[in-house]
Design goal:
Two copies of one chain form a homodimer.
Chain A lengths: L7 E6 L3 H12 L3 E7 L3 H10 L7 E3 L2 H6 L5 E4 L6 H10 L3 E4 L7 H13 L4 E3 L7 H11 L7 E11 L1 H7 L11 H17 L7 E4 L4 E2 L5 E9 L5 E7 L1 E12 L2 E5 L12 E8 L6 E7 L4 H19 L6 H21 L4 E3 L3
Helix pairs in contact in A: 1-9, 4-5, 5-10, 8-10
């Protein structure tokens, strides 16, 4: 079956594990279609396509270049290891492909600037694949945060993302390989914590980052566990912790002057089959003091992300809209904070100024 | 009605707000009796006694000295402002009174050492009034933490205690008066956070404290809001936040290698009338992933505290037991961490080594 005219045709660069979830999301999003997949091995690409619901008409390529040369690919989803992002996103943008890029988006802000520059100069949409941003729960929580009567101002934010990786993960996974994802846990899951903190402060960039002492690195210097504190001149404070060595947590707590918000699965709803996801509000004078708010979710959050990305792409293709630059700005803010935490680790936990 | 022979006779030094709660606790504890109250104003002491369930036979004194001179007072509860603790506890111990002391126990570890020294040399029991330590929920959580099969080892601990004090509190309360409680929020509620962190690590003293930048002080230099990070050489990390300027939170989250424990009212159960109090356990491979554990509570936690303190006192009086020194050790560990955080604030957020 050919994609409908109004559907954005996706090509997937690489057959990473996470690409399975995104393939399903592209299938579920009404304005997107699985159109092509590429791997350095044609066999692997074929197997991926048949296992992940690609239509019989889908294109299967044995090289990333070949997929990028296909003029019918509107957009690429890039789940490649971080060290390959710059090279392939710059090429994809040069071929006028819109780019949905897995996080961490780059090894550092300088690399990200090349990526964003290529997207901008080619007029293509950029978005990082921070899926939870697109869950309806996130929008409902944002309404609360924006309501100064109910929430007040945020004062303290704490976020964790951890899971126990296990021996095989810690030695063989690309996320702990210094040549592929040298940022390790900080890039892979610390990204979510830092984004959540920025999101909670309406993207008010902190002034200073101080990394936590005694981070755990593997033999190659890749971060397995770390954390840090972020400070704003107005007194706001945030702390985060990310680890491949601790049991599963995805906590986000935002303390406001009038109430506080607490969520224990902010990045991925713990039960992905549930049609609702919850957060908790504590109010000093509320009754009850702790209130659960359940938010309905019609599509998985990753499908919501694909739908929003495809909507922007369709607007550019069909209506001549400009790309939405906000997504690049959010990626860059996240990256500069991440870079500052990394710099603080490298400089013996010195306070590092965060500059955009 | 005279106290039964087996009941420890309590005298209360001062009519602080918190003393109302403790009077009720002494009434509820089966092995304790309200015996005397003292205030610098006899009228105030009389009013307090009649409003707080003291028996008609209770003694009412117009000075703290007079109460301490009463040979029938076995133990004193001391809710005086922190700056008065050293003076009055040393006097009370000299009169062989056992001492239940409100937190923060002292302005610094040197003062606490005088307090503990006086208690030790007079053979009296010392205990600080950290009430949540005596809630049955605390014991059930400790069982989980001690179970290396279920919980593993703690890796990251985060604790907050905050409430929105309001203008009157912030200007007129003793807890924000530099002459009475110069440690402000750090002493009053940060004490709980620090104790909770130590409790979670089986009182493994951290090596280093780094205070959060931009604490909020009032015009007299009293802390209204602050926080910090604590580091252990084995990689454990803890963060805390305490504030009189943020809405009500009492969070404690302990991330272990096999599961994590989360509680949102660790210091005082949000609904004190409930007969149960809950905590939450997340296990990576658990089903459900988040499990609520409700613990029954027959007595309010402060009555459980009085009962335990009175049990120790009765053992000393009746059986010639030695005072339980562990309670002094816990107070001192809490105080030295608190002192290190304060020193880090005073030294521009330098890392401060914690020494016992």
């Amino acid at each position: 079956m050919e994609p409908a005219e109004t559907q954005v045709r996706f090509g997937i660069l690489g057959c990473a594990e996470i690409a399975k979830k995104l393939s399903r999301a592209i299938t579920l999003a009404p304005n997107a279609a699985l159109y092509a997949v590429a791997s350095r091995s044609l066999e692997k690409a074929k197997a991926f396509a048949s296992a992940n619901g690609f239509p019989p008409s889908a294109k299967v390529y044995g090289s990333y270049e070949a997929l990028l040369d296909d003029p019918d690919v509107d957009a690429v989803y890039v789940p490649l290891p971080t060290s390959l992002h710059r090279q392939w996103v710059v090429k994809a943008a040069g071929k006028k492909k819109h780019v949905l890029l897995e996080k961490p988006v780059a090894l550092n802000a300088a690399e990200l600037d090349e990526i964003l520059g290529a997207c901008e100069s080619n007029g293509v949409q950029f978005m990082d694949a921070t899926m939870w941003m697109h869950h309806p729960r996130t929008a409902v929580m944002k309404e609360l945060l924006n309501d100064s009567e109910r929430f007040g101002q945020p004062k303290m934010i704490h976020s964790t993302f951890s899971f126990a990786g296990g021996p095989d993960f810690l030695t063989n996974n690309i996320r702990t390989d210094p040549n592929l994802d040298s940022l390790g846990a900080l890039g892979d899951i610390g990204w979510y914590c830092i984004r959540a903190i920025l999101w909670a402060t309406a993207y008010d960039l902190p002034q200073t980052a101080v990394a936590s002492r005694h981070p755990v690195l593997n033999d190659y210097g890749v971060i397995l566990s770390c954390g840090g504190s972020l400070y704003w001149p107005d007194g706001k404070v945030a702390t985060f912790y990310c680890s491949f060595l601790t049991s599963l947590t995805m906590d986000l707590t935002i303390l406001g002057t009038k109430s506080s918000l607490r969520i224990h699965d902010f990045a991925i709803p713990l039960d992905e089959n549930e049609k609702t996801a919850s957060f908790y509000v504590t109010s000093q004078f509320g009754n009850p003091l702790v209130r659960e708010e359940a938010v309905a979710c019609e599509l998985p959050q990753e499908a919501g992300m694909v739908r929003e990305f495809a909507r922007l792409v369709a607007g550019i293709k069909g209506n001549g809209n400009k790309p939405e630059e906000e997504w690049g700005v959010l990626s860059r803010k996240t990256q500069v904070v991440l870079d500052a935490v990394k710099a603080s680790i490298d400089r013996d936990f010195e306070a590092v100024e965060i500059v955009m």
